[in-house]
Amino acid sequence: MIRVTDSIAIGESELSETFVRASGPGGQNVNKVSSAVQLRFDVRGSPSLPNDVAVRLMRLAGQRLTKDGVIVILAQRHRTQERNRADARERLLDLIRTAAVRPVPRRATKPTKASKKRRIEGKKRRSKIKSLRTGRPSFD
Hints:
The strands form two sheets. A three-stranded antiparallel sheet has the order 3-4-5. It has a two-stranded antiparallel sheet with strand order 1-2. The chain is α+β, with helices and mostly antiparallel strands. Strand 1 and strand 2 form a beta hairpin. Helices cover 36% and strands 16% of the residues. It has a single domain, classed as Double Stranded RNA Binding Domain (2-Layer Sandwich).
C-alpha cells in the first residue's frame, strides 16, 4: 500500500508500469536501454479513491487522462529506470494530494458603501471628460 494522505492509500496492484526508450539524457545508452517509465493509474476503477477526489483528479489530470479514465504519466527526466520510476510515482501522488484538498466554496459578498461611492465618482469624472468633447474643432 502506498500512503497518499491520512485517509487515502493506493494498492501497488492499481499501478501499472511499462518501460520504454527515453528521448532525454543518457548519451548512446539511451538507444539501448528502456529507462523511461510510463505509469498508468485507473481513476474510474480505483476502489481506494473517494468519488469526489476521483472527479477532481480527473479534472486536474487534463491531457494525461485517457477516454477510459486512466491517467498516464511519462517520466524520462533521469538516466536510470529507478529514478524515473520514483519520479513518476511522486508526480502521481502529488496530483492525488492536490485533488484530495476540498476547494473552499466562494461566498458572495456585497460591495461596501465606500466602494460604491468611488465607482460612482469615477463614472461622474469620466462622464465630465466625455461631455467636454465637442463634435468638431472650432477654428477661431
